[in-house]
Specification:
It is built from 9 helices and 19 strands. With 353 residues, the protein is α+β, with helices and mostly antiparallel strands. Strands 1, 2, 3, 4, 5, 6, 7, 8, 9 and 19 form a 10-stranded mixed beta sheet that branches. Strands 10, 11, 12, 13, 14, 15, 16, 17 and 18 form a 9-stranded mixed beta sheet that branches. Helix 7 links the parallel strand 14 and strand 15. Helix 3 packs across helix 4. The chain is globular and about 60 Å long. The termini are close together. Bound molecules: 2-OXO-4-methylpentanoic acid.
């Protein structure tokens, strides 16, 4: 990796922010690589700053963009870990193919996250819920307005010491009834900015009505739950953890996958099956559905307090119920390196060249 000494200097002088929100205190260095003539250039650690794009760059018009989100954790013993970064590297290339972009070497992806996390060690808080959030992304930057894949690309990795994604301990959920987030065989399972911008009009409605996050129904029957705008969905129904199956229009969350395995390991019943919203709302009222939560890399696991759909609202009797909180605690213990890593999910962070 090419290292700009100014980037090292900037990182050395980077102080732990007083307020740890999510994704706002960017580290003053980033990693980049450029794609041209079928080749990616050597990774470069450089100082963080605005990037210059031609106004005709494909990404600005046709949203040829993909990204990932992963976290580096530090524990009280000063040990640093990444959580299943290989899954992010693989999903990055899955997304790249879906958007007609070139793949990126998994080795370079992992090298870049290791390097930036290692050099940012001093700003990572050891409190549970704190981490260094890493955001790799790729854009098509060819200045040409034809609707076809870019011939040139850029890979960047930026990062930020982060705390909780939500300011609240539990979230109120608004179920969108006018729009859909993703269509079957669309791009819903690719991690591309377009899926997130498709949620933003609803974000405004959700916030205006006093809710925290939008929940989306599938676009075929408009009945079954898919996911939240930036997280996967779980409910506890008759003591079983239930989450919607991966139909192709849902993001294949790494936290979702981990919670399915962890839940089973802890002796819980876990099912991937369709969840009909209206039935679920009745089950919340009757108490058959006792808990629900959102999960993702950024949010980890956040209890759901209430669900609103077409003038109806149901409230969970217990917010942050025992099953939700057990799963969260056990996941964080693995992520922070507090318990044995029975799944081999932790990857120690080392200083790579
Ligand atoms: C993540 O969880 O890392 C995401 O990319 C989703 C978004 C809420 C930031």
């Amino acid at each position: 990796m090419i290292i700009d000494p100014l980037a090292l200097e900037a990182l050395k002088n980077f102080k732990k922010p007083e307020q740890l929100g999510f994704g706002g205190n960017m580290a003053p260095a980033m990693v980049s690589s450029y794609y041209k003539d079928g080749q990616w250039s050597e990774l470069k650690l450089e100082t963080y700053g605005p990037i210059s794009l031609d106004p005709a760059a494909k990404v600005l018009h046709y949203a040829q963009e993909i990204f990932e989100g992963l976290k580096a954790y530090k524990n009280d013993r000063g040990e640093l870990y990444l959580f299943r970064p290989g899954m992010n590297a693989k999903r990055f290339n899955f997304s790249a193919k879906r958007l007609g972009m070139p793949t990126f070497s998994e080795e370079d992806f992992l090298k870049s996250v290791q390097k930036l996390a290692f050099l940012s060690e001093h700003v990572i808080d050891t409190k549970p819920g704190s981490s260094f959030y890493l955001r790799p992304f790729m854009i098509g930057d060819e200045p040409q307005l034809g609707v076809k894949p870019s011939s040139t690309y850029r890979y960047y990795l930026i990062g930020a010491p982060s705390g909780n994604y939500f300011a609240r301990d539990a979230i109120r959920v608004y179920v969108e009834d006018k729009y859909h987030r993703a269509a079957l065989r669309g791009t819903g399972n690719a991690k591309t900015g377009g899926n997130y911008s498709a949620s933003l009009a609803s974000y405004i409605e959700t916030k205006n009505r006093g809710y925290d996050q939008t929940l989306w129904l599938e676009s075929v029957e408009d009945k079954y739950i898919e996911e939240l705008s930036g997280m996967n969905f779980f409910a506890v129904i008759n003591d079983v953890f239930v989450t919607p199956p991966l139909t192709g229009s849902i993001l294949e969350g790494i936290t979702r996958d981990s919670l399915i395995a962890l839940g089973k390991h802890l002796g819980y019943a876990v099912e991937e099956r369709k969840i009909e919203l209206k039935e679920l709302m009745k089950q919340v009222e009757s108490g058959e559905c006792s808990e629900a939560f959102a999960c993702g890399t950024a949010s980890v696991l956040v209890p759901i307090e209430s669900l609103y759909y077409r003038e109806n609202e149901v409230q969970f009797k217990v917010i942050g119920g025992p099953k939700t909180m057990t799963l969260k605690k056990e996941l964080l213990k693995i992520q922070m390196g507090v318990t044995d890593d029975v799944f081999n999910w932790r990857v120690p962070i080392k200083n790579l060249n």
